[in-house]
Amino acid sequence: MTPDELLTTTRSVRRRLDLDRPVPRELIEECLTIALQAPSGSNRQSWQWLVITDPEQRAAVGAVYKRACDAYLESEGAAGKLFAEDPERSAVQQRVHRSVAYLGDRMGQVPALLIPCLQVTSGKLSDGNQAGLWGSLLPAAWSYMLAARSRGLGTAWTTLHLTYESEVAEILGLPANVFQAALIPTAYYTGDSFKPAPREPLSSVLHYDRW
């Protein structure tokens, strides 16, 4: 794939994750090695990466995720309830809603779950601006997802489990100064094609010099 193709066709994969095919540990580590080339503030590299492949651990995290996902799907902000006044866009949102529900029921069955984390030396997150802090982790997580896509793996970015972050931290034995950023299910995908997703035109979100 060309860089442009990779960047425009890396989709959130939920319904087409292969739940039966194991993902080799060395393949995940290869993707993470690439991810570690991403920038971080002051080159601190304070990221930590937890890969969950043990069936019991996956099931435990999956159960928490399902609880959070069910609550989200019932909320007013759920994907399927957005843009109801626009039939075309609403149809897209309904598909997203169904795919979120599908993954919510099966998260614990995905062969590998990746949780990118930040280790904070002070032991707590700042009450002020945290953009730089999380900005030192999220590019690396996205690099992981791109590397996975280029190797035939599907991923999805979700943070729903963070509603119960402390419960998941206890399941995983995380120290008190380690904070989770996301949950990224990782599996081979079924099917053989991805295409750019429909997006609002650039002109609707672009500003020059001032709003």
UniProtKB/TrEMBL annotation:
Stretches assigned to the Nitroreductase domain: 9-178
A Gene Ontology molecular function term of the record: oxidoreductase activity
Record keywords, A-Z: Oxidoreductase
Short name of any one Pfam family annotated for the protein: Nitroreductase
CDD domains registered for this protein in UniProt: Nitro_FMN_reductase
Superkingdom of the source species: Bacteria
Family: Belongs to the nitroreductase family.
Name assigned to this protein: Nitroreductase
Organism, as annotated: Streptomyces coryli
